[in-house]
Amino acid sequence: MEGLVLELPFILDSFLMVFAGILVMIMACGFAMLESGLTRSKNTATIMTKNVLIFSIASVAYYMVGYNIMYGDGNAFMGSGAFLSGIEYDSHSVYADFFFQMVFVATAASVISGTVAERIKLWPFLIFVLLLTGIIYPIQGHWTWGESLEFLSGFSDYAGSTIVHSVGGWAALAGVLLLGARKGKYEGGKIRAIPGSNIPLATLGTFLLWFGWFGFNGGSALAMHSADLADEIGMVVASTNTAAATGAIVAAILTRIIYQKVDTTMVLNGALGGLVGITAGPDVVPWIAMIIGFVSAVLIVIAVPAFDKIRIDDPVGALSVHLVCGIWGTLAVGIFNADVAIIDQLKGIILIGAFVFAASFAIWMILKVTMGIRVDEETEVEGLDMKECGLEAYPEFGKGAQKMF
Predict the structure, then answer these.
(1) How many helices (H) and strands (E) does the chain have?
(2) How far from each other are the two terminal CA atoms of the chain, in whole angstroms?
(3) Phi, psi of 280 (to 5 degrees)
(4) What count of Cα atoms within 13 Å lies in the side-chain half-sphere of residue 120?
(5) Strands 190-191 and 186-187
(6) Residue 252 belongs to what domain range?
(7) CA 62/CA 133 separation, integer angstroms
(8) Cα dihedral value 258, 264, 270, 271, nearest 10
(9) d(CA 67, CA 62)
(10) Each residue's pLDDT tens digit, 22-46
(11) Count of domains in the chain?
(12) Of the given ranges (184-193, 235-244, 251-260, 344-353), which has the lowest mean pLDDT?
């Protein structure tokens, strides 16, 4: 009995990471459903393939090298080895810790998929995911959560508004600048709306992401072996939900005022923006989360058309949600937490953003020059599914229907 009592904190903290990691894994499904719902059906099979392989590549790359780069004792490039070698914890299982951290890096990579959807070649994209999850993400994670860079010692990011979400946003921005807009999106000086194929599917994806976020933020307490920690997790989950709910409501109200109609996609992204915004500092009371969610929704409604105006084609609004609201959420910690200085938050945002954008731009450029990153015009018009995957997601309604009936 005494041994069990002594081991109980280890058991509880390890269980939290495993259970929360499983919840975050559901977000992979959420990203897939959201992206496919907000894009055209002729590209759905490719999008499904991308999202399954994003999670798979992140799992293997982070295990082989990424985790050791991020949490090893060596330098920020090679860590202390590979395959979790040389890393042990007295307080919890190293495997539980690895799994929980791995689903975060998969989330960062998933952000990119929606931004470059409907015109990116599959294999160059997957190579970029490999390098992001194995090297780029772990290096900046080593500086911050790995606590290796003194310059960022005052930087605070509870669950990753910058370290996860903005990292995905900066990498996506670098890629889309080199990739260009979808054919027909900007013609004759006008912005052409390209509606998604399945709003119910996008809504399902949003709810799955919302659900998984309770593990994303709640699990980031990293421990639950005391009453105070359990109370903190409860507050984090409650505030996470409140920020998302506020974001959805405010987006609905604003679009009704601006467009005289409630824009469903803005409501979905308003909820997601609230979730990203609260992620840097979810350990606050819910009324503060309401303020963060409110501002996040305002930023979404402003940023989505603003990116279109400067001809940055983001089919799912990922840059507005994950990059813009990620920056806001990180700054909000400096506003609402008296122990954190805004200047320290700015240092983290700028350094991480500059590093990730520069490294990502270089990799995307190399891929563009050597392999090409964009499909040819005919493939883009016909849809990527047959060219990249050899099948259609909905053959009864596509070209496959001509062969079947």
Answers:
(1) 17, 2
(2) 69
(3) -70, -25
(4) 30
(5) antiparallel
(6) 1-401
(7) 6
(8) 150
(9) 5
(10) 999 999 999 999 999 999 999 999 9
(11) 1
(12) 184-193
